[in-house]
Amino acid sequence: MTTPTVETTARNEEQLRELARTGARELGAELSPEGTVPEQGEADHLAAIRWVAENFPQARIAVACSMADAVLPALVADQIPGVDVLFLETGYHFPETEGTKEAVKFMLDVNVVDVMPKLSVAEQDEQHGKDLFSTDPTACCRMRKVEPLAEALQDYDVWFTGVRRDESPTRTNAPLVAFDETHKIVKVNPMVRWSLDELTDYSNAHGLPVNPLLSDGFLSIGCAPCTRRVAPGEDPRAGRWSGTDKIECGIHL
């Protein structure tokens, strides 16, 4: 890893905007026609991670991970050992997801940070009605995911996500690097061009922790009450909030 030579204090918004513009320009693969990867040069995901390692101090870098798999934390930790991995501890996760988190802690050179909502599940039930996820899933996601993450990201200048363009129509045009207008930091999606098969193949080839639910028909894993198996041929995210018109928790909108 190249040791960052930049200052360790937080940048202001305009500095981060300029860094995002520079990153998009330097990581020119993002702008290549029809989404093709250049014949020469470093792979998108490696180049994006290297760019972050060289331009941001480690203390200001975060990786978001749902613990469906550990590919993104593993890729980032290869170049930025000890990086913070943010896990949204909603209180509604599958046991398999919690088990995957523990495996990531044990196997990878990362610092897993549990990002907690302000209310426990019991407190939320008392204040907003039992099982809010079934009556108002958007409000539940906001309180247990969106708002806690927004607060946690205030401590960082850049965050990595595992967003892929093949996941859903809302992510088709996801960029490799951009300024996140919601959180006012730089957002990097190193695996944006990866397919689910490529992700699975990489995970298997490198012996990385993987959520066993992925091999049981759960191609996109969220909270247990709001996630079902996906039928063959369905969109990978069709199992999220099934039966509603909701397709995103709100983090990446």
Automatic annotation (TrEMBL):
Pathway given in the UniProt record: Sulfur metabolism; hydrogen sulfide biosynthesis; sulfite from sulfate
Record domain Phosphoadenosine phosphosulphate reductase: where: 62-228
An annotated Gene Ontology molecular function: phosphoadenylyl-sulfate reductase (thioredoxin) activity
Cofactor binding: number and manner: Binds 1 [4Fe-4S] cluster per subunit.
Essential cofactor(s): [4Fe-4S] cluster
Record keywords, A-Z: Cytoplasm, Iron, Iron-sulfur, Metal-binding, Oxidoreductase
Major location category of this protein: cytoplasm
UniProt binding sites for [4Fe-4S] cluster: 140-141, 223, 226
EC main group: oxidoreductase
InterPro entries xref list: PAPS/APS_Rdtase (IPR004511), PAPS_reduct_dom (IPR002500), Rossmann-like_a/b/a_fold (IPR014729)
Catalytic activities: [thioredoxin]-disulfide + sulfite + AMP + 2 H(+) = adenosine 5'-phosphosulfate + [thioredoxin]-dithiol
Gene Ontology CC: cytoplasm
Presence of keyword Metal-binding: yes
EC numbers for this chain: 1.8.4.10
UniProt function note: Catalyzes the formation of sulfite from adenosine 5'-phosphosulfate (APS) using thioredoxin as an electron donor.
Full protein name: Adenosine 5'-phosphosulfate reductase
UniProt source species: Kocuria soli
